[in-house]
Specification:
Layout: E1 8-11, H1 16-27, E2 33-34, H2 46-55, E3 60-63, H3 71-76, H4 78-98, E4 103-107, H5 136-156, E5 160-165, E6 167-169, H6 182-196, E7 200-204, E8 210-215, H7 216-228, E9 236-239, E10 244-246, H8 247-258, E11 263-267, H9 282-288, H10 296-314
Helix pairs in contact: 1-7, 2-4, 4-5, 6-8, 6-10, 8-10
């Protein structure tokens, strides 16, 4: 499905995950890669998408562009998270299907799963309830793109694979505390507290919810496998580590890696988000022969090292 001369579009190719994917594709010898910036192509605009496809016929599309953020950002801008993500995906699916794109790799989100889905999450549970309220608009928008892809497959023979990764983290993540997810937020808070010799860090929630974290390099490898593998058209596949950890324990692990020796104060008046998250990789192992390589502590160490280097570079 993918070969060295394939013409590849990576949406979100300058973002956290997308930039890693572009680098990995280049390292594997793929040269015909287009990764437009938001200024070069606003995927929320249907005409802009059509103009991009008029310029080049794409054999393979990785759709990673998304409006994302943590619980606070989702609570402040739920309409933006719903509309931006729905419009980008629908415009791309419509245009790609009508242009006979050979393979479309759609990147979903763990936030699309029902709030109380049985653990570990399995793909068939995706439709069995409403997502957790604090990020439901984002989750529903991403879930709706699977419905769109299925509809275009039925009408146009659209060749897509949908990947639903769990919480991703790693170098180049967003460390802005207004938008960041839990691991980059913890790393930044621990690093700044350690440097300032502060003995207390205040964190949202109770620390009791659990999460499943996947290192970005592992996620990228699975995406490339999904582009290559035959016979998986129309499939939905989870991507995760299958290692569930409480946020409270995660904070202690980040403290250990960063060298922060103070305490954490949990604000139970702030929302926890979804109570538990952990996905089953069984289908992904079976169809893609994929298993993650990075244990959580090793991935956090790599992320902390990158953050420290980036901080020194931009200081």
């Amino acid at each position: 499905m993918i070969h060295p001369e394939s013409k590849i579009l990576v949406t979100g190719g300058h973002g956290f995950v997308g930039s890693h994917l572009v680098d990995r594709l280049k390292a594997l010898g793929y040269k015909n890669i287009v990764a437009p910036t938001h200024q070069e192509c606003d995927f929320r605009n249907q005409e802009a998408v059509r103009r991009l496809f008029d310029q080049k016929k794409f054999d393979l599309i990785f759709h990673l562009a998304a409006s994302v953020g943590g619980i606070g950002a989702n609570q402040k801008r739920p309409a933006d998270f719903f509309t931006d993500n729905a419009l980008m995906g629908i415009h791309l699916i419509d245009t790609a299907a009508k242009a006979n794109c050979a393979r479309f790799v759609l990147i979903g989100t763990i936030c699309a799963y029902p709030k109380f889905a049985p653990l570990p999450f399995k793909e068939e549970s995706l439709w069995e309830g409403y997502p957790e309220e604090t990020n439901a608009p984002y989750g529903v928008a991403k879930r709706s793109l699977v419905v769109a892809a299925q509809a275009y497959r039925q009408q146009y023979g659209f060749n897509y694979v949908a990947l639903f990764p769990t919480n991703l983290y790693g170098p180049r993540d967003d460390f802005d505390l207004d938008n960041s997810h839990v691991i980059p937020a913890l790393i930044r808070k621990c690093e700044e507290a350690r440097e300032k010799d502060e003995r207390t860090i205040h964190l949202w929630g109770t620390g009791e919810p659990s999460r499943d974290f996947l290192y970005v390099a592992d996620a990228v490898e699975a995406m490339i496998l999904a582009a290559k593998e035959e016979g998986i058209e129309g499939e939905i596949l989870n991507l995760g580590s299958e290692q569930e950890i409480k946020v409270r324990d995660l904070a202690q692990l980040v403290a250990k890696v960063t060298g922060y020796s103070g305490t954490f104060m949990w604000d139970s008046k702030k929302p926890d988000g979804q109570p538990r998250r952990c996905v089953s990789n069984e289908k992904c192992r079976r169809l893609l022969k994929f298993s993650p390589r990075y244990p959580l502590e090793k991935g956090i160490e790599a992320t902390v090292n990158w953050y420290r280097e980036a901080f020194r570079t931009h200081r």
